[in-house]
Amino acid sequence: MKVVFHVDELTKLSEARHNIKNLLTADKNATIVLVVNGEAIQGYLLPAQVEFMKECPKVSYHACNNAMNAYHIAKDDLLEAIEVVPAGVMDLVRLQHEGYAYIKP
């Protein structure tokens, strides 16, 4: 199973974390990508999100470069596990084209 979670609202990041944990409990072999753009990009700096990423290293984490620029976040501000993509929307299109199911908490 391949699933992409899309979060663009900071308040939805916590819900996405819970959804991802639930999915991993149901299917330990699920391939999961979390794509964050918009105001939610700030969430990659929060302690709760950093801890979650350490707890769930099998999840791929993507950050929209456009959102990073808009919120003045540098790649060096993020954990190494986070892949910076040029545009979150294009990343979502590519992943869905590759067969990922789209979930927006």
Report on this model:
InterPro entries: DsrEFH-like, Sulphur_relay_DsrE/F-like. This is DsrE family protein. It holds the Pfam family DsrE. The protein has 105 residues and is α/β, with parallel strands linked by helices. The protein has a single domain, classed as Hypothetical Protein Ychn, Chain: A, CATH 3.40.1260.10. Helices cover 37% and strands 23% of the residues. It contains four helices and five strands; from the N terminus they run E-H-E-H-E-H-E-H-E. A five-stranded parallel β-sheet has the order 4-3-2-1-5, with helices on both faces. Strand 2, helix 2 and strand 3 form a beta-alpha-beta unit. It is globular, with a radius of gyration of 13 Å. It starts with a strand and ends with a strand. The relative contact order is 0.24.
Give the tags.
4 helices; single chain; 105 residues; Hypothetical Protein Ychn, Chain: A
What's a quick, concise take on this entry?
By secondary structure, the protein is α/β, with parallel strands linked by helices.
Mind telling me the CATH superfamily name? DsrEFH-like
How can the largest sheet be summarized?
A: 5 strands, parallel
Architecture, according to CATH? 3-Layer(aba) Sandwich
The chain-level structural class is alpha/beta
| Number of helices in the DSSP assignment | 4
**Structural Rg:** 13 Å
Low-confidence stretches: none
Shape estimate? globular
Mean pLDDT: 97
What is the N-to-C order of secondary-structure elements (H for helix, E for strand)?
A: EHEHEHEHE
CATH class descriptor:
Alpha Beta
Q: How many domains, as an integer?
A: 1
How helical, in percent, are the residues? 25-40%
Beta strand %:
15-25%
Query: What is the CATH topology assignment?
Result: Hypothetical Protein Ychn, Chain: A
- Lateral strand order in the biggest sheet: 4-3-2-1-5
Number of DSSP-assigned strands: 5
* Gap between N and C termini: 18 Å
Oligomer: single chain
